[in-house]
């Protein structure tokens, strides 16, 4: 649905401020009907990327192809017509305070020249779709943050776009409302088949809704792939930092406070194992104990469903006070590697 072909975006020097290379060597595709998260810190280039998709900015080099059309080559009326197939949801809603919920949703249809009867029918359909049919005549000042965002989503869908851009759409909402809005977007994707691009700095948003993720840092794509793969095998430090914030440490505080770097006589080596797939970790401890001849302890575990796949981590204790001692931990790590499990030694406990 969206392809970036060798894109760069440079903003020229302005009023004594130096030019900025916002995007460099961007080359990836977003599948039709998918939900793709684009994540990065402030200044990573997320806003520039989304403005290239909807034609508000032109790339310095390269092409942006949306639904088979080179939108970066359009201008004037041709660009405006193309933009009707690209909906936009904003962080701070951007509703007109002088218009009711229904009138805000109707605005793009009025601009597109729809007949009044068709507008009324379409607005009623959309307000029902987003769950606020009873707020038809309410003004933005009378709506909660979540209700305002539902109006924004309905407005973005008014002209039946094939692409829906969500620019930090849940950043201004509380966690419970965020979950409800993300569930709504997932339902819209299923029912309408619209391609959704999530621009965000929150990996928890990507985890809940997206199937694919693209990680931006300093204008570069540093990592991309299925969300579950990125969560279980993050390669770039920026991705690892996002994941640490999103899922926290899987270790209970009582365990984490006791871990020391050096082996403790009679203690255990602490090893964290990443697991994927339904039931992937169910028999791992028993299988290791049987094949390695070790008394393996399960110290902690966390399993999530991410991008439609089960992923998580098991924290295992490998006893050191046995023949072979420290070698037991090394044998365990070797066995895990041979069986395609990602694992790391966190330290040791008494």
TrEMBL record:
InterPro entries: AAA+_ATPase, ABC_transporter-like_ATP-bd, ABC_transporter-like_CS, ACT-like_dom_sf, MetN_ABC, MetN_ABC_transporter-like, NIL_domain, P-loop_NTPase. CDD domains: ABC_MetN_methionine_transporter. Keywords: Amino-acid transport, ATP-binding, Cell membrane, Membrane, Nucleotide-binding, Translocase, Transport. SUPFAM superfamilies: ACT-like, P-loop containing nucleoside triphosphate hydrolases. The keyword Cell membrane applies. Pfam families: ABC_tran, NIL. GO terms for molecular function: ATP binding; ATP hydrolysis activity. GO terms for biological process: amino acid transport. PROSITE patterns: ABC_TRANSPORTER_1, ABC_TRANSPORTER_2. Transmembrane segments: none annotated. SMART domains: AAA, NIL. The keyword Transferase does not apply. GO terms for cellular component: plasma membrane. Residues 2-243 form the ABC transporter domain. Involved in beta-(1-->2)glucan export. Transmembrane domains (TMD) form a pore in the inner membrane and the ATP-binding domain (NBD) is responsible for energy generation. PANTHER family: AMINO ACID IMPORT ATP-BINDING PROTEIN (PTHR43166), METHIONINE IMPORT ATP-BINDING PROTEIN METN (PTHR43166:SF30). Belongs to the ABC transporter superfamily. This is Cell division ATP-binding protein FtsE.
